[in-house]
Amino acid sequence: MSSAIRLHHRVDGPVSGSPLLLGPSLGTTLHVWDELVGRLARHHRVLRFDLPGHGGTAADVAGAETGAGAGVADLAELVLELADVYGYSKFAYAGVSLGGAVGAHLGVHRAERLSALALVCSSARFGEPDGWRDRAAVVREQGTAALVGPAAARWFTPAFADRAPDRVRGLLAELTAVDPAGYAACCDALAGYDLRADLGRITVPTLVVAGRDDLATPPAHARELADGIPDATLVEIAHAAHLAGVEQPAAVGRALAAHFGRPVPADDADRHTAGMTVRRAVLGDAHVDRAQAATTSLTADFQDLITRYAWGEIWTRPGLDRRARSCVTLTALVAGGHHTELAMHVRAAVRNGLTRDEIKEVLLQTAIYCGVPAANSAFEVANRTLADLDLDLDPGATTGTTGTTRHPLG
Question: Rounded CA gap, 100 and 28, in Å?
């Protein structure tokens, strides 16, 4: 990747997924999206970035480390620069607070680059400019540690602070680590930001998300956005303050997933491509390559069928993550006595993130609902398969090996 990239970032999700960029709020890093990225990355190539002076991004990337001249437009150009590096001529975008302001600016001035937009706990204008200039002055003099108390009250409801103290402490620690010059420059950017008169120019499909307990950008700000942006959709999240995606990830995640949608394959060829991507991710390249090499004229249509529908339709659906699908698949294979495929999917479960203890719990559950004899056979298959997996990881181990088995459902 080019050394000229100026925004620190992280990419998640399938290479074939449609691009989705995620912008953070002032004082947070790309980790503010941690609760949501797993869901969004099922079908999208998700790119998260850090603001100037935040996380891994240098404070002076916008060319105004002293705060004189940095603006939301400068931040938007940095985002476009990052998208260009990855070849994203068009992308979906979601942003929290200041990150949302960046998205709104793109919607007004660079709509041709956006396929869809989501503004989370954001605004067309974040209060009076003097308030932001005052905060910038405080940070330049005292650092961001001076903001921890007020930030905690704005970012979280008291109930969440009691329920998830470790997550709260982690986010506030990120705030104290922000470079004062970078934070202050972002404050100056917010002081000069006002899109109220331009909201009607945003023509891309837009979702506005509000936290009902948000003190920083109250629901009235969200309603102003939704009223001003043609055909925008407004969703209010109960029991959520300014970092609604952290506090209520299930509700915010549902709203974002529904808005950005699951990319629908246009035809069987697209379904095959999508299915092969997931198949390789779950089963591994070596296994799929063996299955492909073993394909004959008799089995070719069957291989195409399972790639398009088992992997391209079912395993790519957003309703369950891959860990959950592995649990369901293991149970079904135990119930059906399909031991060859069970061995294959024990390996797949490990690739999908299940621990051995979790696989054990799934098999124990099958002893109750599928019968002890079925579970007994399943434990034998799993034990042998996991031992073989250990051997694959440590070729010097003394564990015995078994012969290679071709899996028709692979």
Answer: 13
251-289: buried (b, 16+ CB within 10 Å) or exposed (e) per residue?
bbbebbbebbbeeebeeeeebbebbbbbbbbbbeeebbe
Q: The tokens of 323 are what? A: 């860990």
Helical spans, DSSP H, in 195-299: 219-228, 244-247, 249-260, 268-283, 285-293
- Write the pLDDT tens digit of every residue in 239-284: 999 999 999 999 999 999 999 986 555 567 767 877 888 888 888 8
Beta-bridge mates of residue 119: 95, 208
3-state SS record for 109-157:
HCHHHEEEEEEECCCCCCCCHHHHHHHHHHHHHHCHHHHHHHHHHHHCC
CA-CA distance, 306 to 363, in Å (whole number)?
25
Query: For 219-238, how does the pLDDT look when each residue is reduced to its tens digit (9 = 90+)?
Result: 999 999 999 999 999 999 99
For the chain, how are helix, strand and coil distributed in percent, rounded to 5? 55, 10, 35
The closest of 234, 192, 246 to 27, measured between CA atoms, is 246
* Structure tokens, 365: 């559950």
Backbone angles phi, psi at 327, to 5 degrees: -60, -45
Distance CA(160)–CA(327), nearest Å, equals 30
**Cα angle 132-176-221, degrees, rounded to a multiple of 5:** 40
Is residue 29 within 8 Å of residue 100, measured between CB atoms? no
**Distances in Å between the alpha carbon of 250 and those of 223, 244, 246, 253?**
22, 10, 9, 5
Q: What is the pLDDT of residue 62?
A: 66
Strands 91-96 and 18-23: parallel
- Reported pTM: 0.66
Strand order in the sheet with 206-211: 9-12, 44-49, 18-23, 91-96, 114-120, 206-211, 233-237
